Amino acid sequence: MQWVQDPSQSNVDNLNNVRHEVSKHFREKRRHIRELELRYLKLTVRTKTLGTCIGVSMTLKRGTSLDVI
Description:
Helices cover 84% and strands 0% of the residues. The protein is an all-alpha fold.
């Protein structure tokens, strides 16, 4: 609001600094959220893959011999 009321160079500089800090803050927040999402996806895929592998090995143990497969 100071910049609107008095567009002096110092107020313009202050406004630019605040804009820079806010942009930096949101970039860091976005990066953090993406890292959390990536960790979640990796864990989910790993869990599903592990479950699938366990299911296949259990099927092979209970099923017919490996010669048929």
